[in-house]
Amino acid sequence: MKFEAFVLRSLFVACALVCGLILAGMITAKPAPVQLAAHGPVGALLASAPSTCALPAGGNMLCLRAAG
Is the pTM above the cut of 0.70? Predict the structure, then answer.
């Protein structure tokens, strides 16, 4: 009985230690700054997009145009 209790207690301590290390890693992490779409490949793609709508006229379709 004492051996099982010791194994369970050590398993609990190991799990608590791992959870604590993961939590500390999440709290102290310094994420990289977010790159905005206007400065990346999406901005270049929008800049080179045609200015006319390629969809046929009529119906319930919308053709959105980028400003600029």
Answer: no
